[in-house]
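quick one
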Amino acid sequence: MTETKQSVWDMTLERLDSTMDLLNLTPGIRKYLRQPRKVLEVAVTTKMDNGDIDIFTGYRIQHNTNRGPGKGGIRYHPDVTADEIKALALLMTLKCTVVGIPFGGAKGGIVVDPKKLSLRELENMTRRYTFEIINNIGPEKDIPAPDVGTNSQVMAWIMDTYSIDKGYAVPGVVTGKPIELGGSLGREYATSLGCVYTILSTLKVKEIDATDLDVVVQGYGNAGYHCARILYDMGFRIIAVSDSQGAILNKKGLDPYKVLSHKDKTKSVKGYSDAQDIDNETLLTLNCDILIPAALENQITRSNAADIKAKIIAEAANAPTTPKAEKILVDNDIFVIPDTLCNAGGVTVSYFEWVQGNLSYFWSEREVKLKLRDIMDKAFYGVYKVSGARKVDMRTAASLLAVERVARAIKLRGIYP
Ligand code: NAD
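structure w/ nicotinamide-adenine-dinucleotide:
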């Protein structure tokens, strides 16, 4: 069974359309939500180490800013397209609204393989990209954060470039910064901790005993590694993990810390001594209780959905499941915690970082975790309630909640002029 390749933008619009149908929104509001507010494409001219220049294509896209400034990560990846960034910006609008934080949705990216650049080239490219989008970002306008291929060092360079332009330090222009520059404690693993909180809530509502559960994690970057580590520390068995190079399995359980040291040394989880190598596709269909896609979009498709044996899928990644695959999963009684809820812990602690930076008053790690748990639990049970009341799956419930709130914000603000 092959699935005609549908772009992540088309998939996201398809889901938005069905939510708007259920909400019976007016044609005007429907058009408004289908269209990003601002799409910026820039040529990122970069000085390379060999003395020549190279030019990379960059984007910053704001989908909606009715409830607050745009918020969303910056992705460095060779497959970045304007459509992908538009879709991820729309998902950010929904995500910020699901967890009730006062941001709109935005996203950015550069079409580049960052692994092929030296540190100096990466810095040159990041600073030039910041310069090209400088009038479109800012603490009150649009606040970038890390995503695939970027990290706290990249955020530090963006903050520095922006601050040099303004003439004073502006920590609030990005989140996911190093702690020394006003980053929040707990931000590095917030996406994963939020994801774990939604898993714990799922186990509670499904009355599943949290002992002796097998977990599979796809992707061993920021989101995937911390999910594996936190769950391992709580007593879950991590039986398999993967990265772009390959996957490993040990049915008796892996030690995520040791797997990370192996990956740090060899650049991949592949070849880890206390496990067998398996291929990436097999990983998704392993016998397990919880599957965490934490890599890229479009991973669970019509081609593999019927073979998935997990009881719970926790979407740490954005848009890992296609709509056709989701139908199969729901028919097979698999509980999907949707991305807009499951990975919202990252943007929630980004919000905390922004608040702390604006007030120049910083919280303890314990405070951050408690506040995150409060928000994630409230969001989970809010979505779960709608899901029960309207007899829809969790993704539809999360979208109904979010789209209704954004539509209300648009109506309340009115249309200028
Ligand atoms: P990252 O770059 O740190 O890690 C990505 C990982 O996925 C890497 O280990 C990479 O090797 C792996 N990968 C890529 N293609 C793969 C494939 N086909 N099979 C298996 N592994 C593959 O990125 P990240 O920040 O961890 O982001 C991962 C996902 O989580 C993305 O969808 C991102 O949008 C989402 N997300 C991240 C955050 C965050 O705070 N970092 C927040 C919300 C959502």
